[in-house]
Design a protein that fits this description.
The protein is built from 1 helix and 4 strands. The protein has one domain. Strand 3 and strand 4 form a beta hairpin. A 4-stranded antiparallel β-sheet has the order 1-2-3-4, covered by helices on one side. It is an alpha+beta fold. Helix content is about 30%, strand content about 20%.
């Protein structure tokens, strides 16, 4: 074997090693990118799960408030066609029956005393600032309530606005409106309320 052939073999080996190194770096970069994408997707899933749990809790809290009120105002017609608050019922503190909540839209979500959730102390005041939910976390969320009559034979069939029955549905939604992403429903709860006439 001559010196020239050994020299060629060494050059060939070093060039092959350089190609291997470039391929190895490329494969590592691709693997790192895929791992990073997987981690990002996992974090996004965790965040969505957390937001979903918070939104369901908010929806349940509002639903409990609504179904804890009367079906209709004392002495009022339980089959009134127009559902919603009266002209004198300007805040939730004044709502005295479940249909008053129809059309409620509150952004950001507020409690019974009209204080933003995450800042309230549950007694009509604000909690210590150290224990308040961080600003911006739920500021673009909205509470929405619709109350409507449904068919007595099929409780999933919404009746036209001029018809009534012994059954109303209360639908509570928590939505999020992010710029560029549009409106997203985070949680929805529905409950059927029934009116049972008193026996004479």
């Amino acid at each position: 074997m001559t010196c020239r052939s050994i020299s060629k073999r060494r050059r060939g080996n070093s060039a092959f090693t350089m190609i291997e190194a470039v391929l190895a770096i490329t494969i590592m970069a691709l693997a790192g990118s895929i791992l990073l994408l997987g981690t990002t997707a996992s974090l996004e899933t965790s965040k969505n799960g957390m937001y979903g749990a918070i939104a369901r809790g908010m929806a349940q809290q509002l639903m409990d408030e609504i179904v804890g009120s009367r079906y209709c105002e004392l002495g009022a017609d339980p089959y009134q066609v127009t559902l919603g608050p009266g002209s004198d019922e300007t805040t939730r503190l004044m709502y005295d029956d479940s249909d008053d909540y129809n059309g409620l839209r509150t952004k950001p979500p507020k409690d019974y005393y009209s204080i933003a959730l995450g800042k309230d102390d549950g007694l009509g005041g604000q909690r210590n600032s150290l224990f308040q939910i961080p600003t911006g976390l739920i500021d673009n969320w909205q509470q929405e309530v619709d109350v409507y009559y449904v068919s007595e034979s099929n409780l999933s069939t919404k009746l036209p606005a001029n018809q009534t029955s012994d059954y109303r549905v209360v639908e509570v939604r928590i939505t999020s409106n992010n710029p560029g992403q549009g409106t997203k429903v985070l949680a929805t709860l529905k409950r059927v309320l029934s009116y049972v006439p008193t026996m004479q």
